[in-house]
Amino acid sequence: MAREPCACGAEAKYRCPACQTPSCSLPCVKKHKAERQCSGQRDDSAFCDIRSFDDRVLLRDYQLLEGISRTIDASERGREQLVAKQGARGGTDGLSPARRELLRQAQWRGVGLELLPHGMQRQRENTSRYDHRRKRLAWRVEFHFAQVAIRHACAQVSEGCTLLTLLRSLLEPDFVDLEPVVSSEALDGAPSSSEPPARLFPATSNAAQRKSDGRRALLQHKLRRYTRVGAAGLMVFLRAEGRCANDPRFYLLTLHESLSTLLAGKRVIEFPTLHVATPDEAHSYPLLEAAPSASNQ
Prior knowledge:
GO biological process, one term: maturation of LSU-rRNA from tricistronic rRNA transcript (SSU-rRNA, 5.8S rRNA, LSU-rRNA)
InterPro entries: BCD1 (IPR051639), BCD1_alpha/beta (IPR057721), Znf_HIT (IPR007529)
Region (Disordered): 186-207
Organism: Prymnesium parvum
Largest sheet: 6 strands, mixed
Radius of gyration: 32 Å
GO cellular component, one term: pre-snoRNP complex
């Protein structure tokens, strides 16, 4: 029986597994794939009439089932390796010892801290940690100034620091304050630290200090709208997590209270994000207490 010739006229040596087109060489194979938009891969799940069923089709179906079995087995092994890798980072929960201690200390203080899976952006940005030597939490605090579309993050802020101190450090050029040491009274029985208080903005070399002062001055210039109001006249809100995206609600925070007091009883995802507002834009942050109850609906 004569073979069907290739499209170029030469004797065909190959046949496409997908469309059964004969070809004689690699250029002809590529040409027919481009012209017919052919993948060149056999459709292992194509329907076959019982009258055409033979050993070749039986072998094809068997190979298909074998391939599915190998894929399932490989995925199960991959999952076991992933779980083992996460366990090596700190146990079956996938947390490192430092993050597990951060979670434990936050829960002990009444903060509903939720840590995201490894690799997510907010997890990568989180610099919060528990200081074992001083027995206190240092939070990453992110400020959102909506009027000027600026987000500013403080990498590690002592839990005993007040919001007013933080705002003054951001808005007032000559403000210098000592970071408060968390005492046993502030944390309801937590051990106090005998270490001397550290500066909120640690001293560095002259060149680094000038660079830091320049960045701080630029930030204060961008926030001049808030500076005119004054730190004590601003309002700070914390979003209530777990609500519908189209119905956000916020907590109004007291400026003179510490972070540990303000975050107690609230849900925090990785680290707190605080929204700073002037009194005339406070209406953009509906309070959680103002949400209508089910009995009033």
